[in-house]
Structures are given as structure tokens and as C-alpha cells.
Design a protein that fits this description.
There is one protein chain. By secondary structure, this protein is of the alpha/beta class. It folds into two domains: 207 residues, UDP-n-acetylglucosamine1-carboxyvinyl-transferase, Chain (Alpha-beta prism), CATH 3.65.10; 210 residues, Enolpyruvate transferase domain (UDP-n-acetylglucosamine1-carboxyvinyl-transferase, Chain, Alpha-beta prism), CATH 3.65.10.10. Helix content is 31%, strand content 25%. It has a four-stranded mixed β-sheet. Strands 2-15-17-16 form a four-stranded mixed β-sheet. Strands 4-5-3-14 form a four-stranded mixed β-sheet, covered by helices on one side. β20 and β21 form a beta hairpin. Bound molecules: ligand EPZ. Ligand EPZ binds next to α1, α5, α6 and α12.
Length: 425
């Protein structure tokens, strides 16, 4: 087991390069099953969720060749299994994308239930509704989702999602690539990773229109090409995490390899709080500069292009040291405030009532021993440790390794005093 030790109090200064997006990569890797040939994926983040995805591809029979830490070649020609055991799927959420991609290519799949961050109930009824609308039978028993089609295969249909769901939108897109006719997803999610998956599939020969709007049309094609290369979009949430860290530490950070339009909801909020932002003309770099204590703000998380739920814990840290009392409302999940108990131990004044956290800004947080309850909570605790007085120890950091590439190295390069140490079990 490992933990992080942070000596707080240094404003972050310098340049940080953003990695490829976790939530795009975990959809694009299962999508390679649809190709029945070779493709190259670049700008892959070197994180544990990606390693788990690649392990499942190899288990299914694909050949995975690492060309560098961030580029792989995947040959899906010899995939001969359609079952993924629960022991593999329980380790991360995105394992459920193997249902859509196996169903899409083979007309059947038996995939264990997904794991992932414990941030409230995370049903998959909308994924199932989509598969069933296309004519698949879906049975959930003994921790396994079993799905199969009849002799007609999948047939396109109109699917109106009852909730805006990233996972259901992606899974239905994956299943629909080869379906007969056209599949229309209404009330679809619009996140950058939805667009990235559609771009990847279209590059390979799919016919998907409307990704990035709330109506996506997938006209079924008989097969995809092989031999193409694709580079994953930069990670909106990693960039947002560094933006918030720069602001909270009263630092001056240049964020490179980002797409500034994806960051607009965060930029707008930070500007409202008194942070200075400078965008490069090409929209790929953003300087975040904060000299003074930020002022209070009210934030409500919403599906894209709203303020991302995956930046809710990091924002709580910034609001904890901002001047005044702020409201932070979770609008996507039914519970995502477990981490506030840890922040309170560092001196934050937070009261959670239902889906809203009332945060009374304090002048300083104080370092202590805390535990990461999930991925983004872990990122929030790192920011808290960087700005706190004294030393902070963060435990359960495996959650952080699931989603951020070279996270502490990147913070160290910005001046943070942060060390990873092995803990005796
Ligand atoms: C994806 O989760 C992300 N995970 C999450 O990132 C992110 O927080 C979330 O989208 C929202 O942006 C991956 O991409 C792997 P949803 P997902 O389906 O797909 C409800 C991170 O930190 N819902 O958009 O599971 C659901 O309960 C992680 O990187 C249903 O009711 O999220 C939630 O309230 C955490 N039925 C809302 O919809 C369904 O069938 C949105 O969930 C599906 C979802």
C-alpha cells in the first residue's frame, strides 16, 4: 500500500501538460472490438483503468502491443470470447462498455456488473432499455449481464433516455454501429468523450451524426475499416482539476494540450470568483492566475455543458478557502459528498443537506491524515494538502491512480512538495 505526504503552502507555478481523457479512452478501447482488424490509439493516459481495459481486450483474444507508454496497437481479429467475468469487470465502471461492443460485433455478450467509484446509486436501466429497444434480450443474474439477439440481429430504433446518461449514450452507440437501419438516441449526453467516441468510430467507417447535441443518429454499416490511427481528446477533468488547484493555491499555471472550449463552464465560474484566465488564440492553452483569495460562488453540477460533477469535490476545496459562504449542489448523482468529512478534519466548514453542501470559507486548512474515498475525492484532497498549513497524509491513493496520469509528478513540477511512500501493511 502507498500513501502521499504533502507539505502545504506553496503556490503552484509553471506549466502542466494535460493527458488524454480517461473517460474517452475507456470507451474507445472497448470500441476497437468492432474493428475486426488493427488500429492504433495514441494519447492514451497511462492509468490503471486503461490497463484494466487492455487486460480485458487481451482476455477476449485481442493482441495488444504497446508502442510507447501512451500508444497501443490493438488487433481484434482473433477475439473469440464474448464473456467477461465479474472478477475483471468489478474493478472499474467503464467495463460495462464491453456489453455494447460485444453485442454490436457478435450479437451476444455475458459481462459482469461494473464497479467504479462509490458516488451513490448507479443503475444501468437506460443501457438495458436501449439494447432491448434494438431487439436484444437482456437478463441480469448472479452479477452478470447476459444479452443476445434473435436471428434478425440488432435493429435500429428511437431511444429516448429518461436521464441524460454518458454510459447509456456510449453503450447504445457501440451496440448500434452495425444494427440494421438507423438508431436515434434522444436526450443523449453531450460530453466531449461522446464526441470523441463518435469521431473515432466515424474515422473507422461508422456513420454517426449529431454527437455533441442531444440527438445522435447512428446509421448501421455492414463493417468498419481496419488500419486507422486515432488520438484521444485531452482530459477536460484533469485540466479542470489543475485550474482549480492553481486558483486555490493562488498560483500561476499554464495548462497546455487542453481544449479551452471544453473548459468554459469552469473558466466562467473561476472568473466570477476573481481568478484571471488567459486563453491562447489556438484554444489549446490556458493560463490560470490568482493573486488574491477567491470570493464565494454558487455551483450546481449538471451534464455537459454544465459544470462537471467530476470537479465537484475539487471545487469544494476552493470554496472552503474562498471569502464568504457558498452553495455547492450536486445535480447528476444522488450522493457525492462522502469526502466532505475528510475536508472537515482539515478545518473546512461544510454542512451537507441532501444534494447541497453549504460551505463557509475559512482562511486556512490544516494538514492531517485523510483518506481518499474515490477518484475525484482523492484529487480534491491533494489540492487541500497543497494549500493547507503543515503536513497532509493521503491514504487509499489507488483511487487516484485509476484516473490521473503522473499526477503527483505534475504537481511536483509546479512546485508542490508531494511524496509517495510505501506503507507497511
Ligand atoms: C460517467 O459515469 C463517468 N464515468 C463518470 O466519471 C461521470 O461522473 C459521469 O459519467 C457523469 O459525467 C465514465 O465515463 C467511465 P451517467 P456514468 O450514466 O456513465 C443516472 C469519474 O470520476 N443513470 O452519466 O456512470 C445515474 O445514476 C467518473 O471519472 C440512471 O438512472 O454516469 C446518474 O444519476 C465518476 N440509469 C446519472 O444518470 C442509467 O441507466 C448520470 O449517470 C444510467 C445512469
Amino acid at each position: 500500500m502507498e500513501k502521499l505526504i504533502i507539505k502545504g503552502g506553496t503556490p503552484l507555478k509553471g506549466t502542466v501538460k494535460i493527458s488524454g481523457a480517461k473517460n474517452a479512452a475507456v470507451a474507445i478501447l472497448p470500441a476497437t472490438i468492432l474493428i475486426n482488424g488493427k488500429c492504433r490509439i495514441d494519447n492514451l493516459p497511462n492509468i490503471s483503468d486503461i490497463k484494466l481495459c487492455l487486460q480485458i481486450l487481451e482476455y477476449l483474444g485481442a493482441t495488444v502491443t504497446y508502442l510507447s507508454n501512451n500508444e497501443v496497437e490493438i488487433d481484434s481479429t482473433n477475439i473469440d470470447k464474448t464473456e467477461v467475468p465479474f472478477s475483471m469487470t468489478k474493478k472499474f465502471r467503464a467495463s460495462y462498455y464491453f456489453i455494447g461492443s460485444l453485442l454490436g460485433r457478435f450479437g451476444k455478450a455475458e459481462v459482469g456488473f461494473p464497479g467504479g467509484c462509490n458516488i451513490g446509486s448507479r443503475p444501468i436501466d437506460q443501457h438495458i432499455k436501449g439494447f432491448e429497444a434494438m431487439g436484444a434480450t437482456v437478463e441480469c443474474e448472479g452479477g452478470i449481464v447476459k444479452t443476445y439477439t434473435n436471428e434478425n440481429g440488432l435493429v435500429g430504433d428511437n431511444i429516448y433516455l429518461d436521464v441524460v446518461s454518458v454510459g447509456a449514450t456510449i453503450n447504445i452507440m457501440l451496440a448500434a454501429v452495425f444494427a440494421q437501419g438507423t438508431t436515434i438516441i434522444e436526450n443523449a449526453a453531450k460530453e466531449p468523450h461522446i464526441v470523441d467516441l463518435a469521431n473515432f468510430l466515424n474515422t473507422m467507417g461508422a456513420n454517426i451524426k449529431g454527437a455533441g447535441t442531444d440527438v445522435i443518429k447512428i446509421a448501421g454499416v455492414p463493417n468498419l475499416n481496419s488500419g486507422a490511427s486515432y488520438s484521444i481528446v485531452p482530459d477536460q477533468i484533469e485540466a479542470g482539476t489543475f485550474m482549480i488547484a492553481a486558483a486555490a493555491s493562488k498560483g500561476d499555471v499554464l495548462i497546455t494540450n487542453c481544449i479551452t472550449t471544453h473548459l468554459s463552464p469552469i473558466s466562467a465560474k473561476l472568473e466570477e470568483m476573481g481568478v484571471t484566465l488567459e486563453e491562447s488564440d489556438d484554444g489549446e492553452q490556458l493560463r490560470v492566475f490568482a493573486q488574491n483569495r477567491t470570493t464565494k460562488a454558487n455551483i450546481k453540477t449538471l451534464p455537459y455543458p454544465g459544470f462537471p460533477t467530476d470537479l465537484q469535490p475539487q471545487s469544494a476545496v476552493l470554496l472552503s478557502v474562498s471569502d464568504g459562504t457558498s452553495y455547492l449542489t450536486e445535480g447528476v448523482f444522488d450522493s457525492r459528498f462522502q469526502y466532505t468529512e475528510e475536508l472537515k478534519r482539515m478545518g473546512a466548514k461544510i454542512r451537507v443537506e441532501g444534494k447541497t453542501a453549504y460551505i463557509e470559507g475559512v482562511e486556512h486548512l490544516t494538514g492531517c491524515s485523510v483518506t481518499a474515498t474515490d477518484l475525484r475525492a482523492g484529487a480534491a484532497l491533494i489540492i487541500a494538502g497543497i494549500i493547507a498549513d503543515g503536513e497532509t497524509e493521503i491514504h487509499s491513493i489507488e483511487h487516484i491512480d485509476r484516473g490521473y496520469e503522473d499526477f503527483e509528478e505534475k504537481f511536483r513540477a509546479l512546485g508542490a512538495d508531494i511524496t509517495r511512500v510505501t506503507v507497511e501493511e
